[in-house]
Amino acid sequence: MNYLSELTDELKFPPIENATHEGLLAYGGDLSPERLLLAYKQGIFPWYENGSPILWWSPDPRMVLFPKKLKVSKSMQKIIKNKNFCVTKNTCFVRVINQCAKVKRDGQNGTWITDEMKSAYIKLNELGHAISYEVWSENELVGGLYGIDLGHVFCGESMFSLKSNASKFAFISLVKELDAKNYWLVDCQVYTKHLESLGAEEIDRESFLEILMGIP
């Protein structure tokens, strides 16, 4: 039987093996930069809604994308070739996370990107750990994504699209840059058909953690 741990002020997480079948590991604590970075380096991330305590997750299996396995459809290749969009990096992180918070998700009544989460990740961006990619069409922000850059591993958090294929363009741009820099993988957290269509796959948590342990 799994017993959910309540975090204290101590910067420490319970063993990953304590997670429930769904991947829920612990609750409570805070969203300080130190705790968030510790969490991501251990394969843990926060995910909760307003009115709930902070919930910490480490699902098994884990959805990841190895950069060299990126799939770009013929239609996306055409969009890229025609230069329908342009992409920038870290030029308006706050706008990106605010747009991501507005996206309605299937099965969720509200956003999991609470004001508390926004403040925490904006702080991580200011410290150089959280990164955004922005997609533009005729000088208008139409898509983007953000995540945590651990060096060698990028932990994707959320994306948005105000124009068809804009978020996909951001993701492809991200992965191509990571591949050029010899990053090992993109952490996509949990399965979606959209991510699978781009080349992401599920691996067991143990294998994922072994990869994370190799980060200098």
Please report the number of helical segments. 7
Instruction: Determine the mean pLDDT.
Output: 94
CATH superfamily label of the largest domain: Leucyl/phenylalanyl-tRNA-protein transferase, C-terminal domain
Portion of residues within helices: 25-40%
Main beta sheet, described?
7 strands, mixed
Q: What's the arrangement of strands in the largest beta sheet?
A: 6-7-8-9-10-5-11
Rg, alpha carbons: 17 Å
Low-confidence stretches: none
The figure for the number of domains is 2
How many beta strands in the DSSP annotation? Answer: 11
CATH topology of the largest domain: Aminopeptidase
In short:
The protein is of the alpha+beta class and 216 residues long.
List the main descriptive attributes of the protein structure presented here.
single chain, 216 residues, alpha+beta, Alpha-Beta Plaits, Aminopeptidase, 7-stranded mixed sheet, 4-stranded mixed sheet, 7 helices, globular
Model description:
This protein has 216 residues and is of the alpha+beta class. The protein folds into 2 domains: 5-60, Alpha-Beta Plaits (2-Layer Sandwich); 63-213, Aminopeptidase. Helix content is 31%, strand content 26%. The chain is built from 7 helices and 11 strands. It has a 7-stranded mixed β-sheet, sandwiched between helices. A 4-stranded mixed β-sheet has the order 1-2-4-3. The longest helix is centred in the last third of the chain and has 15 residues, at 166-180. It is globular.
How do the helices and strands line up, and which of them pair or pack?
Elements: E1 5-7, E2 24-28, H1 33-41, E3 45-46, E4 55-57, E5 62-65, H2 74-81, E6 86-89, H3 93-102, H4 115-126, E7 130-137, E8 140-149, E9 153-161, H5 166-180, E10 185-189, H6 193-197, E11 201-203, H7 205-213
Parallel strand pairs: 1-2, 9-10
Antiparallel strand pairs: 2-4, 3-4, 5-10, 5-11, 6-7, 7-8, 8-9
